[in-house]
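Final paragraph of the annual report: two paired records, presented back to back.
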Amino acid sequence: MNDRSSNDKPEPRYSVSGVAYAIASLGYPDGPDSSPDNRKIRDLVEDGEFVTWLKELIEISSDFESPNYRPDSIEASEAAEADADIEWRATKTLETLTTRQQESLIAQVKAEFPEEICYEVGQIMPIGGNDEDDEEGVGAEQEEMDKRNPPVIPPYQVTNSKPKLYAGGRLRDVLDPWQDMLYRCAHCGKETPGNDLEPGDLHETFFTRSCPACGENVVLIELPHVTDMLANLDNLPLETRAEVLSFAKQCAHWHKEKIHCIEQLPEIDLDHIVLVWDADYEGHKQSELYARIVIRCGEREIYRGPSSWEYYDYFIDACKVLRRKYGDRLHDVIPTERTHNALWGDRLRAPEIVKGMRERIRKASRIGNRSDLPIDPNNSWENYRA
């Protein structure tokens, strides 16, 4: 006998890919639900009915197991182009909202939807709204909202005209108001506001600010990781929030598409394999922003994926996957000259690091391996680190 309560219903599931399609249908420029002056989406937000409307369109029925289904007749490139067009239309639709309405929409979504839907809405949300015809602006209604939701002020943030003296502890750029604090130089004793400190050293994960009087470093500021930014998303301005979500989406795409397993690579019926690591800018001028990494064996393309900046460490990891796939038949992975800028970046030792990996692959190949010179396991391609 089933004594399960009628209230124990499964959590509703929503199609992430359906969010942009739903919003795009609200009216830019010719969606099926368009209305004069694109007022429909504004009315839904103002009346607090946007979430109810969206749920009806993107909720997945219990017997439907593939929300990302596409007909076999649609090629991947065509699907990607269609998705990009829909996302553009959705963003243009959201641009018709005022900044106040955009913030209200985000609040409504966060109150009712799971994290992945909130994330998708953030991805297509434009930076800034159409405030030209916002008659209310930041009038009585906005003032009332501010009273109900006072800003959260960190304990060390300036709350009056006199900056508080920094007493130590972790400081992160963007997330912590280090510019508004006062710093005392341990070398000369001079006290200086953060905004008046001189630029110091810039490193991969932090930068420093120095004393304008003696030049000594005064404070270290961390460059926050994307996970820190996402964890503090609610405390960021709308503009910064959109940038963080966009960057997080790019990171997720990178990790999904990069070489990480041998199943991504095709078989090569050769006893001696030399691969070329190239860059394709896909019709754009040479810019890492649009580049794609392309790996070829002769004229055959065996991999195409996203590029990055100063990615020599990824080159090492990818070479290890290539070696595991093709074994000692792999003799070399040769980066072309046009990959050098992005591959090496600003790291002076990057060319030497890349060369070290290539040397170890050649030494362990069928051609390079010499039985009278055994390979030291501690210095092999498998244990090589950037």
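The closing record of the year follows.
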Amino acid sequence: MRTPKLLVVLCLIVLNLFLSCSSDEEVAPNNAPIVANPIEDQTLEEGFGSITISLAGVFGDEDGDALSISAESNNTGVVSVSVVEKELTITEVGIGLAGIDITAADGNGGMVTDEFEVTIEEGEEGDPVVIQVETETATLTSSWKLKTDIDGFTGDGYIVWEGEPLFWKGNPGGVAKLTYEIEIPKAGTYLFNWRSYIAKGNESTEHNDSWLRLPDADAFYGEKSNGSKVYPTGSGNTPNPAGESGNGFFKVYMNTVDSWTFTSGTSDHDFHSIYATYDEPGTYTVEIAPRSDFHAIDSFRFTEQR
């Protein structure tokens, strides 16, 4: 039986009206995130080492979008910063004033920045002891290379492992270990940081870590400002850090892209700054071994804690 022409025409008209209405539907605009609870300016006395600030509740988003948070210091000679799991870590570098920008992005083009200042003041006891060592002073072996390609290095260059990655191989620190001797002039606890750079790509969690062991320190541990401590696996102490560790080595990482930074920590997704305690002045050993390839290390330093 034939379909009447009038019915066909009516069906086409209805379909056209439906398509026209659908195309005219407006997409709800994206609402950018907001700063709900700004971070206050921070005034700290030299020798504090590092502090962490929770970013939970700092930002809000009306649309309920998951926010990506990043941080930047405008004076890395005073403090360096990093964000891990909604925690901001501020690491001491020197005396002075630094502006900190914390940016939240919703992935849909919306973003907002919270700005605050950090002031590091000289302590009443005078300057803390600082020991700084250029990494190229070791005898480089295997696939360790001395490079000068990235601007901003100190000394004669920086070192970078260009061999295969050495994570989850079952022998942390067991390949191409570099050894340094340092003079500790004063008994006490020291914050350890190395100045490093992601030398390949722009992913903050790739090419960003190496192994570290301080075998003759009287205590070698990671600590957060809330008092939480971790010890390297194989050291005989617990608890141990999240992620890989072993043979008394910490995996020491950072998450800063396109910038040299003194930020250094351990324990995956639970950043703990690195500390060592020396009960007596003397000559001590620092051991660095490759883990990720293309993690560039310029120098390392020990800063006395008060």
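The longest helix spans residues 5-23. This concludes the annual technical report; the extension proposal builds directly on these records.
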